[in-house]
Amino acid sequence: MKNKYYLYILPLCAIFLFNGKKYDESVIERIHLNVNICVEGQECGEVAMIADTGTASKGTKLYAGCIACHGAKGEGGIGPSFKGQKSDYIAAALNEYKNNIERGPQSALMYAQAAALSDSDIKELSKYIVTL
User: What are phi and psi of 50, to 5 degrees?
Assistant: First the structure.
């Protein structure tokens, strides 16, 4: 009789131990991006330039945090390209990430980024991205 309980308990333990949460956390911890944002007027070398944040739009300022993964022109890299996307699609994606809804294999990378955005930020950022 005791052996039958082990047949039920062992799979349940495996489910709790390997539920994926630990993996998501370890992925986030292992990613260390060394990003240098170059502001217009500074010596930059061969890096992408963004406008001076003192006069830039809110969307431009917010996008500075996206460049490392999505590229200066939204061409993609670590993250997907924004080319051809509409602002409604981008806003919906950011809202899903903000609510920890998985959209793909790298969704966990976006959860903290989107959580820091207000509804107004999401609107401004999505409107800016389609202009890239």
Answer: -120, 160
Sorting pLDDT into bands at 50, 70 and 90, what band is 125? very high
Pairing state of beta strands 49-50 and 38-39? parallel
**68: Cβ contacts below 8 Å, ≥ 6 apart:** 33, 35, 77, 78
Could you tell me which of 68, 93, 85, 78 has the C-alpha nearest to residue 128? 85
Secondary structure (DSSP) of the chain? -HHHHHHHHHHHHHHHHTSSHHHHHHHHHH-------EETTS--SSS-EE--TTTS-HHHHHHTTTHHHH-TTS--SSSPP-TT--HHHHHHHHHHHHTT---STTTHHHHHHHHT--HHHHHHHHHHHTT-
Question: pLDDT by residue (tens digit) across 51-74?
Answer: 554 545 888 889 988 988 899 899
Place of tokens 């944040």: 53
| Cβ neighbours for 71, distance < 8 A, ≥ 6 positions apart | 48, 77, 81
Q: Which domains does the chain possess?
A: 57-132 (1.10.760.10)
